[in-house]
Design a protein that fits this description.
Distance between the termini: 32 Å
Order of helices and strands: HEHEHEHEHEEHEEHEE
CATH class: Alpha Beta
CATH superfamily: NAD(P)-binding Rossmann-like Domain
Shape: globular
Number of strands: 10
CATH topology: Rossmann fold
Strand order of the largest sheet: 3-2-1-4-5-6-7-8
């Protein structure tokens, strides 16, 4: 890679994050991969067994000619076009076996929409000491946490809103990449009603009893700074 590409980023003291696994290459996962590639990552491991559908094109920068092609292959081609030196490994469906054969992983970002898959990935990461992160959205609700969110198209707790928009997907992806640099960052809330940054969510009694739960938009923030080193709570600056 030409050194000039990352010159301005390097001036901020932001180094590339490498050997990142992304599970789920849909509305969030595609943007996570793109942001990491643009940030200088040298190796990404992609997992997804689905094919591109027309409905995906409203949220990800694929073309109509990509419909019916495997998502991981289309994404890998796009990443290689943008960054020819990037090592992209397209692994297909995420299982304990395929995760174990993915090689070195410094972090795993779970962008899946099935709670059973999320729990399998989370438990695998716990067993193998790979840092786990879940990025998800439900309508205009966005969450980025260190545990499964519980939003799902499968069994268990499910999505309350199935229509999707590109903006929450991109914001979730931005939050996921930010959390790689600031692991304590937690994002939870409605992007149209003020999103909560940097605090543990307040759980209801029902949520406390559930190991996996959707995170409610239960507080508002003002004057939010997207500097990955700083956030502001109710107008009061909190630098870490």
């Amino acid at each position: 890679m030409n050194n000039e590409i990352l010159d301005r980023q390097n001036r901020l003291g932001i180094s590339p994050k490498n050997n990142i696994a992304i599970v789920g290459c849909g509305g969030i996962g595609v943007w996570v991969a793109l942001f990491l590639a643009l940030s200088g990552s040298n190796r990404l491991i992609l997992y997804d067994h689905d094919r591109v559908e027309f409905s995906n094109l409203a949220r990800i920068p694929f073309q109509e000619e990509d419909v019916n092609k495997p998502k991981v292959e289309v994404l890998a081609s796009l990443l290689s076009l943008l960054r020819p030196s990037l090592n992209v490994e397209a692994m297909g469906k995420a299982t304990e076996l395929t995760l174990s054969t993915g090689g070195l992983m410094e972090s795993l970002i779970d962008c899946t929409d099935n709670v059973e898959t999320q729990l399998m990935i989370w438990k695998w990461c716990e067993k193998t000491n790979v840092p786990y992160m879940k990025a998800g959205y439900d309508g205009t609700l966005v969450t980025v946490t260190s545990t499964p969110s519980g939003w799902s198209t499968g069994s268990g707790v499910g999505y309350t809103i199935t229509p999707s928009w590109v903006i929450p997907a991109v914001m979730a992806a931005c939050g996921a990449v930010m959390k790689l640099y600031k692991p304590e960052l937690e994002i939870n809330g409605d992007i149209l009603d003020g999103v909560r940054y940097g605090q543990e969510p307040v759980k209801t009694e029902k949520q406390k009893a559930d190991p996996v739960y959707p995170l409610p938009p239960n507080s508002r923030l003002s004057n939010i700074s997207l500097d990955y080193r700083t956030y502001e709570l109710g107008g009061r600056n909190e630098s870490q």
